[in-house]
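Extended Data, record Pyruvate phosphate dikinase, PEP/pyruvate binding domain
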Amino acid sequence: MGSEVSGRVREDKLASYFSWDPCNDDRFASSIVGAGHIGGKGRSLLFGMKSLLESGVDELVSTEMPESIFISIEAFDKFLSQIDDLDNVLDSEPERIERRFLDAELPSNVRERIASFLECVDSPIAVRSSSMLEDSLKYSFAGKYRSRLLHASGDLNERVLAIENEIKRIYARTFFPTAVEYRNKHKLGDDKMGIIVMRASGKWRGRYYFPTTAGVGYSLNLRRWCTRLNVEDGLLRLVFGLGTMSTRRGYARIFSLSNPNLRPEGNHPYNVMRHSQESFQMIDGDRGDIVTYNINDKGILDYLLTHYGRELGEYAQVYREDDGNGYWENLDLSYFRQQEDDSKVCVTFERFTRHNPDFFTRMQKLLKHLEDSMGAPVDIEFAYEPSERKLELLQARPLWTGCCDSKFDERDLEGKLVILKADRMVTDGQLENVPYLVYVDHKVYVTAANKHEIARAIGEINKKLYPNSYILVAPGRVGSSNPALGVPVQYSELTNCKCIVEVGIPVLGFMPELSYGTHFYSDLEIDNVLYMPVFAGEKGNVFRQEWFESACCQKMQDLGIKIYKGSFDVYMDCARNIGIVAVRKGTCDGENMEDR
């Protein structure tokens, strides 16, 4: 697959994409504040809109971009120049950097433009980073800088002040350890920050503001869940409510654009329920902030039914139990507000998929057009109001694909024991002679009182194993923000990990999840960390639990962590959708050792 992906890069078009300057385009120049570069995120978004407007295809030309202004890097330079003793400030702790930045003034032309923008836009506002280095093909800086949705209520002066302070906080993040360490790790040097100030997608529905649906899209499907899908089909990760949920390791609906009805989790009602979105986000006009609610909270469900009526059944269904076998009912036909049984509402998008085939055709055309225009595979962020067929483009950039050609052959397994095997969501890659494997025992983790302690212990193991690499095997979703779904380890705690295997144990509630579009996934791709999910007990999958229980290892007994020292190989073949972790026979021999 690696050669197939690399063959989709058109160097001539990619060069044209990078050389395009929106300041020279009359359609966009008036929205730019200051001279010079506006940063990678801003420039790529405007290039995407330019490409769609020039496509001549009605369903692409009709794509909108929320009202926005783009503050150039020049403003960042002017802002820094007025801070006395800047070098000493930047060498101090993050809190002091932010305080000093908040005390400084933005350039007058920036402040005036923010005020004039807010006079015309009274909706909530998104303030987004757009740094110079975000213009890189490979490094997206996903989650490394700050972007924020603001209600920005009050009179004009209060709203202007709120936006100004958020810009200063983004400027400060340029020098925070997370961003500095990321740049140092990849030898990228210093960065400069542009800013996007954009009307937040959505509309007011009573006291809450949000789009009905939002998500991320890819022109390539690099992790197919069955061989019936093609890499070039494209993929969406769609959520109900604010798109902030689509970039986290929470549940979202995954669609192949050529076959939207084909689910990664299959069609068994219980598995669909386990992978369906229940929590969603809105901007609360009373609280002035983003809030997260569960659709099953009675007050929230009443609110949604009041504002959507029967339309809510396009996105959500009722899951019911019947003698241990679950089944689905349509929300608008079966659910009553005084429900007292064990049923629950889940966002499945089932009827939306059946009733809106034109949406998926439109998104496939849009992604292919952007890929052709930019000269490389692309990823986007978007919001969509189905009742209005209103599609807003929020981000568009070339997609880095770190795939390599697979050379896996069955003969490579001679003299080795297969301890893990996957049959879906596998890309190409290979590792040989990995010296360590770190394993989190699901039987211990599921009852652990402090799951965050286990995550921090993995971070410490990561440090101790340096400079050696290792494979991490853990239940559920590694890096989950919800410890009940998987180990909440931070990506910065996995710097020496070269392969992550997520083990699905459905009876315990641990289910791997294809996290395209999340910041965690982007980091894996950039650092060429291999990933595969293993579904214990399912055909085509191997989880050799007896090996993990009997092989020689160092144990952290109270945390359920085991460290195996041996010789491990990883083979992944996208064409056959096979992923394998094997241990060379004769390694991992000896006596187990207790660490704690």
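Summary. Residues 208-353 form one domain.
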